[in-house]
Write a structure and sequence with these properties.
This protein is α/β, with parallel strands linked by helices. It contains 9 helices and 9 strands. About 35% of the residues are buried.
Amino acid sequence: MRLVIVTGMSGAGKTSALKMLEDMGFYCVDNLPVPLVGKFAELVTGREGEISSAALGIDVRSGEGLSELENTLNEWERESLPYEILFLDASDEMLIKRYKETRRSHPLAGKERLDRGIARERQKLEFLKKRADYILDTSTLLTRELKEELDRIFLDHERFSSLFVTVLSFGFKYGIPSDADLVFDVRFLPNPYYDEKLRGFTGNDREVQEFVKKGRTAEIFLEKLYGMIDFLLPYYVKEGKNQLVIAIGCTGGKHRSVTIANMLYESLLAHREIGLKIEHRDIDKDSRVKG
């Protein structure tokens, strides 16, 4: 029997996660009053063969009863009742953006500003986040990518780390990404822009990749870059970091940065314990700009 509590910040994707778990075969219940949580656990764990996995959605809509949940969890641990907590999170900026797009009101904001309601919610849910087995930051996740992460945890049973890594190519001409944690400049590599035959291609094309790799400088750089990131990843996990954005930049974000970002992404695929995706922010911008 697998019992999962699905919780997290309002607007971070809890409802979507519950629907995805339901598609996986979980028996899902959302917003059950906290005093009934213990009874729910007794029912689903006591019906052998009928329910093999259940998910329970809990959030700040539980009101003052939310504080009672900690006592329930402590009791489950004393009784050795197995349970897991999935916590959905997102940056304050992204949560505000999502609320403004949907024009919904935050459950704790009332007539005050959104950021104050979000701050209160973080405080109320802090005890759940500290106990969480899985923390997913959905700030930059597409719905498809959220499903892939849940599949890895609940279907493939892979070892989970809460760290989600985005490898991002960009052009310095358009500015350094504001959310970048690590920024690397690859403008020292051969520039395909000056070859008329390659100017219209991108770092996703074999011809450009071969040009950028001339002389092995790119490969040597990648070896050193991967070595450093491979060293850093477990320390980021240990510190509880949820999102890591590695930004690779060239002039226009079309040729060199795309090539190196692709190479780094392929190397990082060996780390099955992290979430991973790649983005090319400026690849489709003005082709006349140097790559």
